[in-house]
Specification:
This protein is mainly alpha-helical. It has one domain (3-270). The protein is 69% helix and 2% strand. The chain contains nine helices and two strands, in the order H-E-E-H-H-H-H-H-H-H-H. The protein has a two-stranded antiparallel ribbon with strand order 1-2. A hairpin with a 2-residue loop joins strand 1 (36-38) and strand 2 (41-43). Helix 4 (100-119) packs antiparallel against helix 9 (231-270). It is globular, with a radius of gyration of 23 Å.
Length: 274
Amino acid sequence: MTDQTILAVEACDVQNEVICAPGNVLELFEFTDPIFSIGAFDFTRTVFLTFLAMILVIAFFYFGLRRQELIPSKFAIIVEGVVGFVRDDVAKDIIGHEDGPKYTPYLVSLFMFILVANAFKLTPFINFPLTSRMAIPLFLSLVTYVIFVIVGFRKQGIHFLTDTIWPKAVPIGLRWLVGLIELVSVFVLRPITLAVRLFANMVAGHLMLALLLASGVIFVQNVGEIGIRSGIGLVWFAFGLAIWVFEVVVVVLQAYIFTLLTAVYIQTSVHSAH
């Protein structure tokens, strides 16, 4: 657990409370104190971790793909496996064998960055998922939004908009209603829902881990004051460890879902609806 988490719950009343919770849960996610500043730019812990995630992803691909050997190393096999998985099972299967490879570099980079950013939640001495800050998933979803809108107009022209507003597959009496819903869904809600889905899952997992593990620590530390009630801390800590194992799956799954939905959105731009 980080000092940030412990400080958020250290005021817990172990005599009257069953689980320790901060008065303001935002304390578990906000890092507003700058490590240092360059002019008007504050270099906070969140900024540092963002750069660290980018460096780790670049290093992952550089050292894994820089040499094309007849017998690749185990690390190179892992990197090639990740690239092959995203290229074949996401890009080609969703977007198509002809157009999919064009978007593989973006999809692979997106998947790895989100995976690393999510994994910070489970990393000792960090324990903070970057994607629990709404600005990160929102920025990534906006990049995806710009790509699929640009590709849509480039591939389909004005039909990309008119077919959304006036869907010909729908009975004419309902086209105006369905078209309005589709217009809002595709051009307004799509980037928001993509970002919120990732953000909400990371916040929920981080909050449960913080409350359960920190509660366990606090209750055990106060065994002399509360006696047998400190056993509550052991229960919460055990639950926290179980959720930690489950969160390993969530970290990978959420990176995959975000990448998969990005491919789906691009596919709707590349291929017109029938």
